[in-house]
Design brief:
Distance between the termini: 23 Å
Strand content: 15-25%
Number of domains: 2
Radius of gyration: 20 Å
Oligomer: single chain
Number of helices: 11
Structural class: alpha/beta
CATH architecture of the largest domain: 3-Layer(aba) Sandwich
Number of strands: 12
Bound molecules: nicotinamide-adenine-dinucleotide, 3-isopropylmalic acid, manganese (II) ion
CATH class of the largest domain: Alpha Beta
CATH superfamily of the largest domain: Isopropylmalate Dehydrogenase
Length: 352
């Protein structure tokens, strides 16, 4: 490995995460060859299987190793019915987001082929926006507890934590991204009418940050209205920025607009530091092990990762190959095709 070779950590995880990551690696290998990329990778066997066998979700010092030796991390998916607590997923997935302070969760929603949109009469131009989800705070911080558990008087508290710094940095990132990509429309979404403390802070931070970007047409929608508007007319959105929980929910809706979870990639970023890339979908236990999962989201995620590492051409090629596969009807059953996960992955890798 030369000085400049950059290393990627692959964590296939559980269920279809394992299947789609295998195809993502095939695509990466093809791109390394065809574009002469100075990229190397290592696969880590962390997931439910290891957790059940050894009681370990990930080894001590894992995050220090990532920070020191890796340029990017790819996670397949985590979640297994045999681990009802979801502990290993919390440790590995949320652990990576929190420990590496990956405060930007970038989830693009791009219709690659008009035939895949569930809405009537929509073209590729109508569905093309990006969701920026705050990724280190909100309802996800795990603050709270239960009292009188398993009694009729049980009480459960789950705190929604919002910091001025945390909110401001994701808002600034979204505005900066819009500016850098020639995007003019930005929508901040919260639920300040019902959550006046936590989301009142979002309102105040937004009022201040938007003043610094007079060239960007920014507006606010409550999340219930945004949800409705995204279905009614997605063409009005270019950049959406919101809190952790709403970003999670909106991104599955966004995935549906582009043809399903099998097509939705994402990036978890801390600018200038090691970042993590994953599909929006989960481990899908209902279809795991059947060679039917769509590997395209994983291939597009490799594209986002390479773009982040400065390989824009290879990234564009990954997206184009997926577009070609869809056009040629080389698709898995979720997109109406009869190809398997591996066969679709092979076709894309050959194209690359
Ligand atoms: P899911 O995303 O795994 O599946 C939702 C539905 O979409 C299922 O019907 C599934 O079959 C389908 N689907 C998802 N990806 C697909 C693909 N690539 N091709 C074809 N169909 C696909 O969500 P879920 O069922 O709510 O969660 C299952 C497990 O995954 C849970 O343990 C959950 O916590 C976990 N999860 C993990 C991640 C992650 O690791 N990034 C993300 C979401 C959910
Ligand atoms: C996602 C997933 C995760 C989240 C779960 C598995 C904790 O749904 O990445 O969208 O809610 O962030
Ligand atoms: Mn989700």
């Amino acid at each position: 490995m030369s000085e400049k070779t950059r290393r990627i950590a692959f964590i296939p995880g559980d269920g279809i995460g394992i299947e789609v990551t295998a195809e993502a690696i095939k695509a990466l290998e093809a791109l390394i060859k065809s574009h002469g990329l100075a990229v190397d990778y290592r696969v880590f066997d962390w997931g439910a299987e290891k957790y059940l066998r050894e009681g370990v979700s990930l080894p001590e010092g894992a995050f220090d190793i990532f920070r020191r030796d890796y340029a990017a991390i790819f996670i397949g998916a985590l979640g297994d019915p045999r681990v009802p607590s979801n502990q290993h997923a919390a440790d590995i997935l949320l652990g990576t987001r929190f420990n590496l302070d990956l405060y930007v969760n970038q989830r693009p929603v791009k219709l690659l082929d008009a035939r895949l949109c569930p809405l009537k009469n929509r073209s590729e131009q109508d569905v093309d926006f990006v969701i920026f989800r705050e990724n280190t705070e909100g309802l996800y911080v795990g603050m709270g507890g239960v009292f009188k558990k398993n009694t009729p008087d049980e009480i459960a508290v789950q705190e929604d934590m919002n910091t001025r710094k945390g909110v401001e940095r994701i808002l600034v990132y979204a505005f900066e991204y819009a500016g850098a990509h020639g995007l003019k429309k930005l929508c901040m979404s919260d639920k300040a009418n019902a959550l006046p403390f936590g989301h009142g802070l979002w309102q105040r931070a937004f009022a201040e940050v938007r003043k610094r970007y007079p060239g960007i047409e920014s507006r606010h929608l409550y999340v219930d209205t945004l949800n409705m508007e995204l279905v009614r007319d997605p063409s009005q959105f270019e950049v959406i920025v919101t809190c952790n929980m709403f970003g999670d929910i909106l991104s599955d809706l966004g995935a549906a607009l582009q043809g399903g979870l099998g097509l939705a990639p994402s990036a978890n970023i801390h600018p200038g530091q090691v970042s993590m890339f994953e599909t929006v979908h989960g481990s899908a236990p209902n279809i795991a092990g059947k060679n039917v999962a769509n590997p395209m989201a994983a291939v597009l995620t490799v594209g986002m990762m390479l773009d982040h590492l400065g390989h824009a051409q290879a990234a564009a090629r990954a997206e184009e190959a997926v577009r070609e596969a869809i056009r040629e009807n080389v698709t898995t059953p979720d997109l109406g095709g009869s190809f398997g996960t591996r066969e679709t992955g092979d076709w894309i890798a050959a194209r690359l």
